[in-house]
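Sorry to interrupt, but I need a hand with the structure work. It will help me judge whether the discrete encoding reads sensibly. Write everything out right here, beneath this request:
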Amino acid sequence: MVACTRWKDMLVRCCGALALCLAGATGLPAAAQSVGSAYTDYDTKKCAHKGGRDVEDYGQWRCKGLNGMAVLVSAGDQRMTMSFGPRAADEPAVGQTLQRFNDVYKARIEWRFARMAGGTVKPFAAIVRWNAVPLDERTSRPQTASGKVLVVTRLGPGGVCHVGYVDALANRDAGALARKIADEHARTFRCDTDKPVILGATGPGFSSSGDAEKLDR
């Protein structure tokens, strides 16, 4: 009877250790069951707008995302920014954009979330397709042909900021690459010290932030 009890205790400890190892390998807390995606759409024409003060300041639009999360879209000087959460206006993302002229007035947001043991859904990253417009150096004006860039943004708590970029035109598996960035980098990304990454091939229409680093697959 004693030997049987000891065997059961050893089995319980081994199972517990295995669960912790698996949680560490996936980057999920032990209570998390799975990672998945949810989708919401927004259109700044239908969002609350606050006008800017300067000529090149087009103002801000406050939209709603997954579970009512605030989506703050700002525009100025032919470029845009996007931030999320209750402190969206104070997050690092509110000052991040692509180097080239760009817009994201209307888009679908893919939310990467962890589904916890109790059924709670906790989004940890947002993936949005931005339009990037190359500059015609001869005229110093935006060209009509646009690139498509998937921007992966880390969600709070702990900071909201760009984590990485994928060229949506140069990669047939662009969505999978963006999810890979989100799942492997977003939850441990430090907005104040880490640099965003670029994953996959890049074409002539691609753009990212100036400090982004290219990663091998």
About this structure: The radius of gyration is 21 Å.
